[in-house]
Structure to design on (745 residues):
């Protein structure tokens, strides 16, 4: 096993994760609101904070004891086979989210930006760029994230400020109209969409500085962004939001400032920037795991291989919207997130304790 | 790696730039730049779609006077659906419709009185359509409005859009955008309001006028209210920004106010199983005119009296409109029913099916607080 290299500051790491999660927030698909009313979407982030904190407890417990080893290394200490199984789970996890992220970008570009154009070439080029980002490594991705955040955050704030005038509180709905359970379900679904928990679970040993404090700031920031965006979507568009495939993009298209009326263009650039960071980071992590546990070749070959597989998967999905719906399945996401972020760390934690107790008894 | 990425970047840019199909679609001369869409239903139940579009051929051939209105052309097509009707324009004109510049959707009487819900889907589904495009109803047919000519030139959809967008400065005009129509259509009562357009002809000169506001109940046209009544509809909607308002004084004089700011708050309480709505209106106004000759220096008590009479007038007219809306037209186009839904969900659940009669039997309390901000040049005496 080759020891993983490269460190990143807590600030850069969480900024990168913030942008990565922002992409999921802004590309939110309205189909998830099926069971709950609009105002419940504003409450849902509170449940997300609770669930997000709970599922990360085993990971935090693990890293409190073993600050310098990641989950894969801890699994390797138990057995090589276990490490390989965990590696495959994480590679699948990250590959799946890379494909879904880019498939959503493809759906967006094909539906909204260039509805009459074949976007396959654009998709291939986007994947090549993400592979290039992964090739550059963790530190350049971190630095690009900070620069992107300087552009993305003011852009989102600007769009929302221009919408203040259009806010209509009559568009709100009663809270918990259909009970609390549907809201919790949507919060669980939202956690399932957050691949960043998996990234944290794998990368914390590489993060220097106040990683735990950073986690809560990140969690609060991204959940707040989500709540604010839902607030504007609900109060500005009302029930119209639930008829739109990409409601936040539609919301941006309603924003106008002075003579500038197409602020959705800003929104599109935010989306592309975040997609580059997210997919680049996910491809980087897959490459890193492959080199560490199955490594025989140069890094660039792994990146090219992942890139080609991602292109094939995305070209297949982009043929029919039905394939996208199958790929972008909530149950798959919740399952794979639960397995990688909760069950595997919990397993390592429990077996570690049992092993220690056994050693103590023997001694 | 860096060189390879740069080479690919150049390749893809070149591919997109020189792809012949893309060039054809991007060339504005091959597109029919739609400015307005009007929809009617013919006797054979087919949709009759009238579009007003910029005549790009005529524009490129015409003079370089860019300030003048672009040459327009109207087309009328028929089809089983809106989409098939619109698509058929390519057959006759050889151009691909471009909807993103569309300024207004006009629905004819045959649509608003019958099957309005059937025509909305196209505008929501088609991604080129802007969500913020204005919607208006026609007193007769939508086609006659978009085909109307004043002399040699068409009355442009753009000028109609400008008229509707002036609601910010004149609350006698009501505005409705596509996204808000869908929002109201999807919410409970399906009641809403939209500007009503009519074609006028005087001394051979045609003009399109906003003749009032059309009220809808369950997506069907119910009644028209006048432009003066529309001011109070905008008050109830909390959409009033600026408008002129005039009313009688005791001494046969008429006072005109320029309302410069208005805020309406609506609340509802359930008392003895009956909703009691409280509508509070806070307004600021400037006195623009007092008829009956130049008046002598104003006193504080005169200003107070003008404000008091104004409050009474607004209260009375707002109550009259509420009565008309709920008692006569049975239209919750201002969304007060939704207030019950938000604030008293259990009561709403119980009465969801007979909300119309609940609203008819509700109590409406209107309270107006009018402050006079300026009186113009005139001197004030203490």
């Amino acid at each position: 096993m080759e020891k993983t290299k490269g460190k990143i500051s807590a600030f850069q790491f969480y900024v990168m994760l913030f942008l990565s999660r922002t992409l999921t927030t802004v590309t939110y698909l309205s189909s998830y609101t099926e069971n709950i009313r609009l105002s419940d979407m504003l409450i849902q982030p509170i449940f997300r904070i609770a669930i997000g904190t709970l599922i990360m407890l085993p990971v935090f417990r693990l890293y409190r004891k073993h600050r310098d080893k990641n989950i894969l290394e801890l699994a390797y200490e138990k057995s090589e086979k276990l490490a390989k199984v965990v590696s495959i789970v994480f590679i699948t996890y990250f590959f799946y989210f890379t494909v879904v992220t880019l498939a959503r970008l493809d759906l967006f570009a094909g539906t909204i930006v260039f509805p009459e154009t074949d976007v396959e070439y654009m998709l291939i080029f986007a994947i090549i760029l993400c592979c290039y980002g992964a090739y550059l490594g963790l530190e350049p991705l971190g630095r690009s994230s900070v620069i992107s955040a300087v552009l993305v955050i003011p852009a989102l704030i600007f769009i929302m400020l221009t919408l203040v005038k259009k806010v209509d509180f009559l568009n709100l709905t009663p809270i918990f109209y259909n009970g609390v359970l549907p809201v919790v379900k949507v919060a669980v679904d939202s956690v399932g969409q957050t691949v960043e928990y998996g990234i944290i679970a794998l990368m914390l040993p590489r993060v220097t500085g106040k990683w735990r404090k950073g986690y809560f700031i990140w969690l609060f920031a991204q959940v707040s962004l989500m709540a604010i965006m839902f607030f504007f979507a609900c109060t500005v568009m009302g029930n119209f939001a639930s008829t739109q495939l990409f409601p936040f993009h539609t919301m941006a298209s309603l924003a106008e400032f002075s003579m500038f009326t197409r602020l959705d263009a800003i929104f599109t650039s935010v989306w592309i920037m975040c997609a580059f960071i997210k997919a680049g980071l996910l491809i980087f992590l897959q490459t890193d795991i492959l080199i560490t546990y199955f490594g025989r070749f140069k890094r660039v070959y792994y990146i090219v291989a992942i890139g080609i597989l991602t292109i094939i998967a995305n070209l297949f999905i982009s043929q029919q919207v039905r394939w996208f719906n199958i790929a972008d399945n909530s149950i798959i996401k919740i399952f794979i997130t639960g397995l990688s972020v909760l069950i595997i760390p919990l397993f390592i934690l429990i077996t570690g304790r049992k092993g220690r107790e056994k050693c103590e008894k023997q001694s | 790696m860096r060189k390879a990425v740069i080479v690919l970047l150049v390749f893809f840019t070149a591919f997109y730039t020189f792809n012949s199909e893309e060039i054809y679609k991007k060339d504005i001369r091959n597109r029919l730049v739609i400015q307005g869409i009007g929809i009617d239903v013919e006797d054979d139940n087919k949709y009759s779609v009238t579009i007003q579009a910029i005549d790009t051929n005529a524009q490129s051939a015409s003079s370089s006077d860019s300030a003048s209105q672009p040459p327009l052309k109207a087309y009328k097509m028929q089809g089983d659906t809106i989409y098939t009707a619109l698509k058929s324009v390519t057959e006759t004109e050889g151009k691909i419709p471009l909807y993103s510049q569309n300024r207004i959707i006009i629905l004819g009487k045959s649509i608003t009185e019958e099957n309005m819900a059937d025509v909305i889907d196209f505008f929501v589904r088609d991604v080129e359509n802007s969500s913020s495009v204005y919607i208006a109803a026609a007193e007769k047919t939508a086609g006659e409005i978009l085909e109307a000519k004043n002399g040699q030139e068409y009355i442009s959809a753009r000028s109609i859009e400008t008229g509707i967008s002036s609601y910010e400065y004149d609350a006698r005009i009501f505005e409705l955008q596509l996204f808000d129509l869908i929002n109201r259509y999807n919410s409970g009562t399906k009641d809403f309001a939209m500007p009503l357009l009519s074609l006028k002809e005087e001394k051979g000169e045609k003009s399109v006028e906003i003749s009032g506001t059309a009220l809808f109940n369950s997506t069907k046209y119910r009644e028209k209210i006048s432009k003066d009544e529309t001011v109070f509809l905008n008050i109830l909607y909390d959409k009033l920004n600026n408008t002129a308002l005039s009313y009688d004084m005791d001494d046969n004089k008429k006072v005109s106010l320029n309302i410069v700011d208005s805020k309406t708050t609506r609340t509802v309480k359930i008392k003895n199983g009956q909703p009691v709505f409280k509508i509070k209106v806070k307004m600021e106004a400037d006195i623009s005119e007092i008829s009956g000759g130049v008046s002598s220096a104003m006193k504080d008590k005169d200003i107070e009296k003008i404000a008091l009479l104004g409050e009474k007038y607004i209260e009375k007219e707002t109550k009259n409109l509420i009565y008309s809306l709920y008692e006569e037209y049975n239209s919750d186009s201002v969304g007060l029913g939704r207030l019950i839904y938000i604030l008293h969900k259990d009561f709403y659940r119980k009465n969801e099916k007979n909300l119309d009669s609940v609203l008819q039997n509700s109590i409406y309390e209107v309270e107006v607080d009018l402050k006079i901000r300026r009186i113009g040049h005139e001197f004030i005496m203490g």
Remarks:
- Residues 300-328 of chain B form the longest helix (29 residues).
- The mean pLDDT of chain B is 86.
- Residues 28-225 of chain B form one domain.
- Residues 2 and 200 of chain B are 67 Å apart (CA to CA).
